[in-house]
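thought: user wants a sequence for this fold. calling inverse folding tool.
action: design(structure=
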């Protein structure tokens, strides 16, 4: 079983398409199809079901996928460990919450890029749920997510602490006013966002069970929709400081136990901690004074 074939298998599984996997891998679809068929012959079972829209994993493929990603990651880590000498270099693929990117990471990334120019750092935004899955399945080296994270395959380190606030149009004068609000809409990121889950829990506690969620992929769009009177949201206070200063939204404090949220940096327990990762963590530690990571 070739590692290259496992990488092809993982890409096809992730995209649900031979053609899109081929584009990512910079090859042609016929080559991807041939590799998948050869892999299926080798393991003796079909890994994908073909249909008009693409492919999807069979039960056997679903069971095999976590191991394929792990094997490919272990081989990459072994190569990285052998070559990891001298100044930090190579690639570092990280993920982050949209709010963390907006509020915390700019000075850290600026310092890191200046100090370690040979590291090719990429940053992907997503929800806590999607980012955690990407780290577990070895698509990201690490990620900033909302904690607490309790996963047997992950190392989690608290790096920031945020205060969540309810953000509403000025027409809503208090949190209690939500109980009598008509056609209430929540302006949120897609499913898997921890702030969205906390907002849903808050509304349920208040007896508001009919709020309609409107999903957006941009933090600016969410704040703009709230300012326009379309709905409400739940965000870290620092993210909405500018909007509050402009007096375009209203902000309502929550009880401390509901407001406090931890941002944690996660990575696989079994992953090799490269010099690039160590360098990034050191820059973050200096920048924030709180971040630490074990070897």
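)
observation: tool returned 295 residues.
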């Amino acid at each position: 079983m070739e590692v290259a074939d496992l990488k092809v298998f993982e890409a096809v599984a992730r995209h649900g398409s031979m053609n899109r996997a081929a584009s990512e891998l910079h090859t042609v679809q016929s080559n991807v199809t041939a590799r998948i068929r050869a892999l299926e012959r080798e393991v003796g079972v079909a890994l994908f079901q073909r249909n008009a829209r693409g492919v999807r994993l069979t039960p056997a493929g679903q069971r095999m996928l976590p191991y394929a990603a792990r094997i490919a990651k272990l081989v990459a880590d072994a190569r990285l460990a052998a070559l990891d000498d001298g100044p930090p270099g190579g690639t570092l693929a990280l993920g982050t919450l949209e709010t963390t990117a907006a509020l915390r990471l700019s000075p850290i990334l600026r310092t890191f890029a200046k100090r370690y120019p040979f590291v090719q750092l990429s940053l992907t935004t997503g929800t806590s749920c999607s980012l955690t899955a990407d780290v577990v399945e070895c698509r990201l080296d690490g990620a900033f997510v909302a904690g607490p994270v309790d996963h047997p395959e992950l190392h989690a380190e608290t790096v920031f602490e945020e205060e969540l606030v309810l953000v509403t149009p000025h027409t809503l004068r208090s949190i209690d006013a939500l109980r009598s609000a008509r056609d209430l809409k929540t302006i949120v990121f897609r499913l898997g966002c921890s702030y969205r889950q906390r907002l849903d829990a808050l509304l349920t506690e208040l007896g508001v069970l009919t709020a309609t969620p409107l999903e957006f992929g941009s933090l600016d769009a969410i704040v703009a929709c709230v300012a326009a009177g379309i709905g409400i949201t739940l965000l870290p206070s620092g993210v909405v400081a500018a909007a509050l200063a402009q007096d375009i939204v209203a902000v309502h404090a929550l009880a401390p136990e509901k407001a406090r949220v931890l941002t944690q940096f996660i990575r696989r327990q079994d992953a090799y901690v490269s010099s690039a990762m160590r360098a990034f963590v050191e820059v973050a530690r200096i920048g924030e004074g709180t971040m630490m990571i074990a070897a």
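thought: summarizing for user.
answer: Here is the designed sequence. The chain has a mean pLDDT of 90.
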